[in-house]
Amino acid sequence: MTSARTQLTRAAVLHEVGAPLRVEEVELEAPRAGEVLVRVAAAGVCHSDYHYMTGDLACRLPVVVGHEGAGRVEAVGAGVARVGPGDAVALLWRPRCGVCRFCIRGQPVLCELGRVQAQSGGLPDDGTTRLRLGGKTVHHLMGVSCLAEHVVVSEKSVVPIPARVPPPVAAITGCAVVTGVGAVLNVAGAVAGSSLLIIGAGGVGLSAVMGAQLAGANPIVVADVEPRRLDRARQLGATEVIDAAGQDVVEAAIGLVPGGVDWALDAVGRPETLQQSIAALRPGGTTIAVGLARAGERAHVTINDLVQHQKRVVGSLYGSANPQIDLPRLFELYLSGRLPLDELVGTQYRLAAVNEAYAALAHDAIGRSVVLMDS
Questions:
Q1: Full-model pTM
Q2: Per-residue b/e over 251-278, b at no fewer than 16 CB within 10 Å?
Q3: Domain 179-318 classified CATH 3.40.50.720?
Q4: What tens digit of pLDDT does each residue of 41-90 get?
Q5: CATH says 6-160+344-372 is which class?
Q6: Looking at the DSSP assignment, which residues form a beta bridge with residue 137?
Q7: Secondary structure tally for the chain: helices H, strands E
């Protein structure tokens, strides 16, 4: 039975590592003070969720997965002022409290509320969950859990979106796009005329291609093992591509840019790809590590190469962005035609086919697949 303060909603639940997701009806509590109820329209299929499904990363189980989504507000809790019923919103998996040392220093993606979400499997403000199944607690993933028809999230985890932005575009912008574009614009910055190597042409890598073109990088070199992804990278602005299945990435990159590239971005997150990105740098070049790896994974780095050639390796989480500021900018760039995000949207699935979406992600997905809610 559900009370007047709860509702039933279909959601993709992970019960154990390595098992398929189950689309089940879960109980969702009404929003409390400072929280928002959102009817989800679209959710992106991100490799980060897959890491939790395979055990590469750990979270509290059972959990409703999904952290890249968009929808429309249906109800708000007491004290919510930034959004109201009927507003279109994108969901954020990294909230901003505004008062911790990271927020004050201008690094909101490192906000301390992220640790509360990760450790508790709950919402960021108090670490508790709004989800139940058969009387048992179900956890939130990254404070979002948007592979569901409805979600309750903190007001800090939503950003309003213009009505003309389609839900699939809004969903993927909240993670893949801001991560890839942001890594270029916020970390590399003034790269006009500088060479940039991007390893991995999935959703984040392709977003980085668009960011690189927007910033004027040249040449933009993209490496991937899937020819169709390389074709999509060319469509989005890559000037050169490397078939990593048949070519040595480092040799090919240095062949295209003699002496090495100014910037490299690893959007894959494997030891070999990070090593390739560093080896392909010119003296004084910088690698931006973006892709997540299995917990505890290590890459071999030649110390003397870093020291003698003054190379740098920096990490970038969530595009090192300020999502409440950067997402509206990205939406405006999309609406003005300067970010062709429609071309990034890949195959669209229904919630019932969510396991098919993740199976394709591991093998041959092109662009960023999305799940459209049946409702």
A1: 0.94
A2: ebbbebbeebbbbbbbbbbbeebbbbbb
A3: yes
A4: 999 999 899 999 999 999 999 999 999 999 999 999 999 999 999 999 99
A5: alpha beta
A6: 132
A7: 12, 18
